[in-house]
């Protein structure tokens, strides 16, 4: 993810421009809210902003030098005037915010300015959020706050109103593919990973996960079986699918992969083969795409999305998959 200003400019140019302008004009807000999907560079941007503020020899007055003592300590997470608060278990508790306030009531150890970051700010308890609100309403001079969230709708409106919000856009699939290939992922695997996550680290973990590699094969086989009869599909669920996709998270991942197959078939019908992600199955999918209709594929994609919602609503996984198979086969002997 973005470790330098140059890398940040590639993935979040709007955010970069706003922060650089604020630093150059000395108009930094006392509190920022970085909101966006996981893996879009929020934490890395917070670290970059901290280094820009504390760097002893910033390039052009903005870009951290990465060589001074402050930059190095921030990179190692041990600068005394920078504090990071993360959930203690499932939530950020009032005591954590109170400890932060006590720390900030003291004079800066090495400079007059201080900065704190709250990771997963949406996970603050009500009491913690109310404590933070008082802190935001009466900030200490030269104190900067960066709140980060993937669930901005869960933040208190009163806190949102006291922060300048910077929205981090999802990474483009093209950028993800390029980065993954740079990091050693095989070209035929990168497109699938780019569709499943915006997080490079998570994508790399999936790429090295034997379970995930086998999951792709099982999903492709399920689609092939769906084209036959319902009895064979039900047998396949019992003999293969349920032995591999055991918990809710795994089943959801399987449904995502199945959805990507149907999207690929639709892309092929539209003549957009370059946008397909199951690259290693290209020849097979091109044959399948000739044997169905665009309307049928769209309907089937809607059925899979409905199944994902039912899964999150805790429908019995076995019943869900059996219902899904039957619905995907309705109305046509050829899917």
From TrEMBL:
Q: Gene3D superfamilies in the record, alphabetically?
A: P-loop containing nucleotide triphosphate hydrolases
Keywords for the protein's UniProt record, in alphabetical order: DNA replication, DNA-directed DNA polymerase, Nucleotidyltransferase, Transferase
Record domain DNA polymerase III delta subunit C-terminal: where: 245-329
Reactions this protein catalyses: DNA(n) + a 2'-deoxyribonucleoside 5'-triphosphate = DNA(n+1) + diphosphate
Write one Gene Ontology MF term.
DNA-directed DNA polymerase activity
InterPro entries, alphabetically?
Answer: DNA_pol_HolB (IPR004622), DNA_pol_III_delta_C (IPR015199), DNA_Rep/Repair_Clamp_Loader (IPR050238), P-loop_NTPase (IPR027417)
Pfam families found in the cross-reference section = DNA_pol3_delta2 (PF13177), DNApol3-delta_C (PF09115)
Q: What is its EC number?
A: 2.7.7.7
Name the NCBIfam families on file. Answer: holB, PRK08058.1
State the protein's name.
DNA polymerase III subunit delta'
Q: Which organism is it from?
A: Niallia oryzisoli
């Amino acid at each position: 993810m973005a470790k330098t200003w140059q890398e940040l400019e590639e993935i979040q140019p709007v955010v970069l421009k706003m922060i650089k302008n604020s630093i150059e004009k000395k108009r930094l807000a006392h509190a920022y809210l970085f909101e966006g999907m996981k893996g879009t560079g929020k934490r890395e941007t917070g670290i970059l902003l901290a280094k820009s503020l504390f760097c002893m020899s910033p390039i052009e007055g903005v870009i951290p030098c990465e060589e001074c003592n402050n930059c190095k300590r921030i990179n190692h997470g041990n600068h005394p005037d920078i504090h990071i608060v993360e959930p203690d278990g499932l939530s950020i508790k009032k005591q954590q915010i109170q400890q932060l306030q006590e720390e900030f009531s003291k004079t800066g150890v090495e400079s007059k300015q201080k900065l704190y970051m709250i990771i997963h700010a949406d996970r603050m308890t009500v009491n913690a959020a109310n404590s933070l609100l008082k802190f935001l309403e009466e900030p200490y001079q030269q104190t900067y706050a960066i709140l980060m969230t993937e669930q901005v709708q869960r933040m208190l409106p009163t806190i949102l109103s006291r922060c300048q919000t910077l929205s981090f856009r999802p990474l483009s699939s093209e950028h993800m593919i390029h980065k993954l290939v740079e990091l050693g992922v095989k070209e035929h695997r990168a497109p699938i990973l780019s569709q499943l996550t915006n997080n490079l680290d998570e994508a790399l973990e999936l790429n090295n996960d034997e379970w995930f590699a086998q999951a792709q094969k099982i999903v492709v086989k399920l689609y092939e079986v769906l084209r036959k009869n319902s009895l064979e599909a039900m047998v396949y669920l019992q003999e293969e699918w349920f032995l591999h996709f055991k918990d809710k998270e795994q089943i959801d991942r399987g449904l995502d992969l199945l959805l990507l197959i149907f999207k690929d078939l639709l892309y092929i019908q539209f003549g957009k083969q370059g946008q397909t992600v199951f690259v290693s199955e290209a020849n097979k999918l091109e044959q399948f795409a000739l044997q169905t209709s665009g309307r049928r594929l769209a309907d089937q994609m809607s059925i899979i999305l409905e199944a994902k919602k039912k899964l999150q609503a805790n429908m019995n996984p076995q019943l869900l998959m059996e219902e899904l198979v039957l619905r995907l086969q309705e109305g046509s002997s050829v899917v």
